[in-house]
């Protein structure tokens, strides 16, 4: 099962979950930590599936990382997704 680190890269306004820049979350597979924002999760799912299935983003400084993932709340929160462990 893949393991991911989700980091808050930027907060550009009000966030109803009060996320702060630098805050990190660990996702084990596609299970989210309790209390993680459902709207943000729906935006992250395609990247989680892609990285967990072997996709690489060669245009990023780290190809197993996707940056600048803007939340659907008008982009008030921006996330970075990093693959920590791959499927065995």
Structural description of this entry:
- With 88 residues, this protein is of the alpha+beta class.
- It has one domain.
- It contains 1 helix and 4 strands.
- The protein has a 4-stranded antiparallel beta sheet, with helices on one face.
- The longest helix has 15 residues.
- It is globular.
- The N and C termini lie close together (7 Å).
- The model has no long low-confidence stretch (mean pLDDT 92).
The total number of structural domains is 1
What proportion of the residues form beta strands (DSSP E)? 25-35%
Mean pLDDT: 92
Q: Uncertain segments of ≥5 residues (pLDDT<50)?
A: none
Q: Give a short account of the largest sheet.
A: 4 strands, antiparallel
Order of helices and strands: EEHEE
Overall strand count? 4
Structural class from helices and strands? alpha+beta
Report strand order across the widest sheet: 2-1-4-3
Question: Roughly how much helix do the residues carry, as a percent range?
Answer: 10-25%
Task: Tell me the span between the first and last alpha carbons.
Answer: 7 Å
Radius of gyration: 12 Å
- Overall morphology: globular
If helices are DSSP runs of H or I spanning 4 or more residues, what is the number of helices?
1
